[in-house]
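for the writeup, i need someone to sanity check this before i put it in the appendix. the sequnce is what the collaborator sent (i think, or maybe the updated version? ugh). structure was predicted straight from it, no edits. if anything looks off just tell me and ill rerun, i have time this weekend
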Amino acid sequence: MLKAVFWDNDGVLVDTEELYFEATRAVLARAGFALTAERYVDLSLRRGRSAFELVRDAFDARAIEELRAARNALYAERLSAGVPALDGVEAVLAALHGRVSMGVVTSSNPEHFELIHRSTGLLRYFDFVLTNRDYERSKPDPAPYLAALARSRLGPDRCIAIEDSERGLAAARAAGLRCLVAPRGLTRGGRFDGAYRVVETADELLAALAPLID
């Protein structure tokens, strides 16, 4: 029986993935580099690498860090305007609350995560949150989910991850977890071989989880 559900954040709980892409694209455009959605998806959402690698031949390490800081500031500015929870996700969280342990396992930094959830009201449903300060290597490395397993004190057979991207699926599977994938926006059209199930809506997500819990 399922005892814990580990949730990705961006693109799963909240609609932020495209905001992050647009902030990255805007900053790289100022530096004279055109970042396409296709390139971003392949590099970041499939392989888990930084889009700033694309300009490392043109800029030194200090300049790239300045570009990264500019992107983070622009992204934070856009998050400060408010971020909505994805349709139906709070109803799923409410239905699961108290029946299983739940944690957020995100690649976001703590500052951005705090801005994102300043007004969503979703964090009351979670037992713990892991951001990119809580593990050494990001998805698709299994480190984030191994940290979640350690925090929950459960084996991977008692847990499941919910992701929207190929890198997230790879991280979950490498940690020995089943993974439900709910692609949207930039992650639609990805290859999700090995997913426990691919769902389109919050209702489908809850329906897929229910028999694992009851």
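Residues 81 and 104 are 22 Å apart (CA to CA). The first strand starts at residue 4 and ends at 7.
thx in advance!!
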